[in-house]
Structure formats: structure tokens, C-alpha cells
């Protein structure tokens, strides 16, 4: 394990310290935000709330987390943009829904361009939201056969997705539904999937009492995984905890939680 830890630290330090010329890469900063009338928790009736402008921020899943991530990402890439607040982001999203069916859930694609311009796309979705980890497996994860190089484009959400696209091509069978690829870095640490953060059941030993607890464990951000908003929610609620997950610890047929800001939480079966 010592050698693996050394390699892991080398990979992480390279990721954090190497200069990165992002100006040569075409991309937009991206956040996908769920708008859903079932999320509303304000004091007005739903019909009254839906005609207000801007819409109540409770209509947007994890809005405050999206604000934090967008600000951190814009700062990292040194983009010339006004710092977001929940009120500003809520108003921008509300405007993008002006001529849409607000009784329908939408995926809001918030695109921040390098020049600081903002573009928001509202896409109707039929996927229901689930935040209960006690669900049945409905997805399949295929463990990748090659490592994915961690970079700012794995740590921060953007439209540059070449590494994810290649991993999906390698492992997901043609025509497969509810399927994703499980990624690992060059230190053989599990990181995420191509569209979700992940957690698996692992034993956690209390160093003081020696008591062993089984917890849903998600890779730390230092592995190179995305700082996902649902990941943050589950951590804040104490539903999952952070821990390094080595590729050789993954078993064929074991279950995993997968989660993102649009579908919430789902359960998957891993195939090696």
C-alpha cells in the first residue's frame, strides 16, 4: 500500500501544481441545475408561486451549492465574470423559463463562456427526482479498462468531455440503457463515472474504539473526481463519507450509489 500511496500523492501533486494552459482548450464552464415544481417549499400556493418573477429559489435543486461551485470554477479559470449570488442565479434561471411550461421539470444547462457571457438552456425532462439511498438497482456500471488522467476538467464541470466520451466508447455496450462507466486515475483510485459521483459500501474502523462501521464511501476530491452538488448534499447530511477506494477493491456484482444534480440518487450494479 505504501507504493500506491506514493504514486497517488505524486499524481495529486502534479494535478495541483503543474501549470495548465486552459486558454488553448475550447470549453464553457457548465452547471446542470434541476428545476422542478415538486421542490417548491414557499408560503404561496403553487399556482401563485409559478407566476412570480423571479421564481422562488426552492424550485431549483441545490441552488446554493451550484452558486458556490460556479464561483469557485470561474475563479480557478480566471474568467471575467460577476460573482454569483443565489438571488442572481435564481433570477437568471427564472428568465430562461419565461416561455416554458413551468409545471414541467427542466434541466437547466448554465453555460459560462470564457468572455464572461452566460447562456442558459432549459430542456424538459421526464426523469423523476430521488434522494433516497434505499432504492433498487436500476443502472449498470462497467469498470473502465484504462485510467483517466485527472485534470481541471475532471475536478470542475465543463463542456470539455473528451475523456468521458472515450471511456464510454471503451466500455458501454452499444444500445445499453441506464449504463455508465466507472473511472479510475493513474494511481488506481476510483474517481467517478462519466456523469455521476459514486459511493460504495466500505468498512470504516474507528481509530479510538476499534469499532468497525460499514459506510457508503465516496472518493475524495483529491482523487480528481468532480465536486458534485448532490455529493456535497449527501456529505453534509452524513449519508456518505469520504475515503480512498482502490480499483482492486471493486468486486464484480457489488452495488454502488451514483448521484448527480439532475436525477439525484440511483443504485447500480458494477460489472468488471
TrEMBL record:
It comes from Ogataea polymorpha. Gene3D superfamilies: 3.30.470.10, D-amino Acid Aminotransferase, subunit A, domain 2. InterPro entries: Aminotrans_IV, Aminotransferase-like, BCAT-like_C, BCAT-like_N. This is Aminodeoxychorismate lyase. One of its GO terms (molecular function) is catalytic activity.
Amino acid at each position: 500500500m505504501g507504493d500506491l500511496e506514493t504514486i497517488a500523492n505524486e499524481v495529486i501533486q502534479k494535478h495541483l501544481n503543474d501549470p495548465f494552459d486552459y486558454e488553448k482548450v475550447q470549453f464553457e464552464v457548465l452547471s446542470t441545475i434541476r428545476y422542478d415544481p415538486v421542490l417548491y417549499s414557499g408560503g404561496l400556493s403553487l399556482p401563485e408561486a409559478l407566476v412570480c418573477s423571479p421564481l422562488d429559489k426552492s424550485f431549483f435543486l441545490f441552488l446554493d451549492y451550484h452558486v458556490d461551485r460556479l464561483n469557485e470554477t470561474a475563479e480557478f479559470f480566471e474568467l471575467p465574470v460577476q460573482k454569483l449570488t443565489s438571488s442572481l442565479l435564481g433570477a437568471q434561471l427564472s428568465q430562461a423559463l419565461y416561455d416554458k411550461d413551468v409545471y414541467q421539470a427542466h434541466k437547466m444547462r448554465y453555460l459560462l463562456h470564457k468572455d464572461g457571457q452566460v447562456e442558459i438552456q432549459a430542456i424538459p425532462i421526464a426523469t423523476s427526482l430521488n434522494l433516497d439511498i434505499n432504492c433498487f438497482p436500476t443502472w449498470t456500471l462497467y469498470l473502465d479498462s484504462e485510467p483517466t488522467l485527472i485534470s481541471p476538467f475532471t475536478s470542475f464541470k465543463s463542456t470539455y468531455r473528451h475523456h468521458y466520451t472515450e471511456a464510454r466508447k471503451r466500455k458501454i455496450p452499444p444500445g445499453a440503457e441506464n449504463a455508465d462507466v466507472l473511472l479510475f486515475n493513474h494511481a488506481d483510485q476510483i474517481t467517478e463515472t462519466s456523469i455521476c459521483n459514486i459511493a460504495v459500501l466500505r468498512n470504516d474502523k474507528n481509530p479510538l474504539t476499534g469499532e468497525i462501521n460499514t459506510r457508503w464511501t465516496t472518493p475524495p476530491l483529491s482523487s480528481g473526481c468532480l465536486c458534485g452538488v448532490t455529493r456535497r448534499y449527501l456529505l453534509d447530511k452524513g449519508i456518505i463519507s469520504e475515503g480512498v477506494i482502490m480499483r482492486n477493491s471493486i468486486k464484480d456484482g457489488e452495488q454502488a450509489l451514483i448521484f448527480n444534480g439532475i436525477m439525484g440518487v440511483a443504485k447500480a450494479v458494477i460489472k468488471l
